[in-house]
Amino acid sequence: MTTRASLLPDRSVLRVDGDEASKFLQGLLTNDVTRLGPDEATHAALLSPQGKILFEMFVVRADDAYFLETGAALLPDLLKKLGFYKLRARVEIRDLSDAVEVCAIWGGTVASDDVLVYADPWLPTLGQRAILPKGSFDSLSALAHLETPGV
Fold first, then answer.
1. What whole-number distance in Å separates Cα of residue 149 and Cα of residue 119?
2. How far apart, in Å, are the Cα atoms of 98 and each of 14, 15, 37, 74, 103?
3. Helix, strand or coil for residue 125?
4. Beta-carbon-side half-sphere exposure of residue 128 (alpha carbons within 13 Å)
5. Which residues, other chains included, contact 131 with Cβ-Cβ below 8 Å and sequence gap of 6+?
6. Mean pLDDT across the chain, nearest whole number?
7. Residue 24 and residue 66 in contact, taking contact as beta carbons nearer than 8 Å
8. Confidence (pLDDT) at 147
9. pLDDT on residue 146
């Protein structure tokens, strides 16, 4: 089976890092981000005080940071809302829209130091997601294994 990938231009990424990033996100989101291992992702939401979903996202842990992959149209509002809750927390929240892009990968795997790859947290059989430097999607085929091992 050939590895395939598709850019997801309707998705964008925020980076949350700092001494209190884990505690900050744990107190706001619907899923347990403290259980994430390196390069693991979970689906989470930010709710209104009444329990309505305001934002949905994939939360990916990498290095000492969390990457929030969410809808591009809602990213400015999410950034504003997180800034509202930040108060004095020792966290930095950055919009990476101009620096990275998101793609979906299926039918194989990709491995690279420049690409953050994680299993789709909704259903691992859907394949993988990747956060990669903007403009590097065309070279993704050089990173992909052309055949799925064992097929």
1. 17
2. 11, 12, 27, 15, 15
3. helix
4. 19
5. 13, 60, 67, 69, 96, 100, 101, 102, 115, 116
6. 87
7. no
8. 36
9. 34
**Quick one: tokens of 106?**
């299926």
CA 66/CA 38 separation, integer angstroms: 10
Distance, CA of 2 to CA of 5 (rounded, Å):
10
Q: State the chain's maximal CA–CA distance in angstroms.
A: 52
- Kindly tell me if the per-residue pLDDT of 2 is higher than 80: no
From the list 27, 12, 2, 147, the residue with the least C-alpha distance to 85 is 27
Distances (CA, A) of 140 to 7, 66, 67, 135: 11, 23, 20, 10
**Which carries the bigger pLDDT value, residue 150 or residue 39?**
39
Residue 42 has a CB neighbour count (10 Å cut-off) of 19
Bridge partners, residue 118, by sequence:
129
pLDDT band per the 50, 70, 90 thresholds, residue 26: very high
Specify the pLDDT at position 151. Answer: 34
The pLDDT of residue 29 is 96
